[in-house]
Design brief:
The chain is of the alpha/beta class and 331 residues long. The chain folds into 2 domains: 199 residues, 3-Layer(aba) Sandwich (Rossmann fold), CATH 3.40.50.170; 118 residues, Methionyl-tRNA Fmet Formyltransferase, Chain A, domain 2, CATH 3.10.25.10. It has 9 helices and 14 strands. A 7-stranded mixed beta sheet has the order 3-2-1-4-5-6-7. The longest helix is centred in the middle third of the chain and has 25 residues. It is elongated. The N and C termini lie far apart (52 Å). The relative contact order is 0.11.
Length: 331
Amino acid sequence: MRILMMGTGPFAVPSFEALVSSHHEVVALVTRPAAGSHRRKRKDINPMRESAVGFGLPVLDPDNVNDPGFASTIASFQADLLVVCDYGQILSKAVLSIPRLGGINLHGSLLPRYRGAAPINWAIYNGDLKTGNTVILMTPKLDGGPILGTVTMPLEADDTAVTVEEKLSRLGVQLVLDSIQQLENWDGESALGEIQDQAKSSKAPRLSKNDGVIDWSRNAIELVHQVQAFQPWPGSYTNLLRQGQSPQRLILTKVAACSIPMEEALTNDQIRPAPGTIVEVDKSSIGVQTLESTLKILMLQPSGKKVMATGDFLRGNPVVVGDRFEDLPGN
């Protein structure tokens, strides 16, 4: 089968390389132009482009894949199928109609849950116990086409968006190959795939910088999930406020929820500190009051510096009980 691949990010690379090594013929890669990436600081990183160049394949990077003028370019490759993964643009009905078999998409969630650009991040953020991949037959509706296959995996306690993306990218390879085999065996008349249950759908919108703001009035375990979900971008950040010093922006990169509720740690004459108050400092961590317990900060990144253990940070930045973390207007 002649395949035209569409992808940009690292999630697509294992499936792309497996297709190139298979009996199928990958004719070209369509990818996002560097300047059009939403990742900002990482906008020039395109592992799919690098992989395609290594294989000696043509690389196309239209600003708008749905531009009518680009349709003839797609048609010139005479592809049987579009294979789309981590691409970054929604394909129109006109584009999907060009290949003989349309297009399939490898999506990093168990559809119809988490339709959108950031399914892995929101699954972790919401504390899901499992996730997976889905391959769908593409339609113009965002992630709404018939399901050709799924594969499931558990979310581990220490998983981050980075580790889950890597696991799912490898887990998706066989699912893509199996889905293409379904299309090769299709009689051209019977229904393809399982229609999604719209009542069970949920959204996974593209991340924004503001998503990373830490709200200390949330539960500690919710903040653990946030820190894990928003790596490497936008990160989870807050401002350290100390007596007589300017606010210091910190990105939290590793945290843990204290298992003892704050009420159990207080004596009868103590009042629970306000969320964001530092309630404990030792050689390796900072304990911060949240809605109902303490969040331990184990690793962090000061603005403009590298990620470091909290103990290393404390040696050059003294912190005492009663100092605070909070968001500041305009920050």
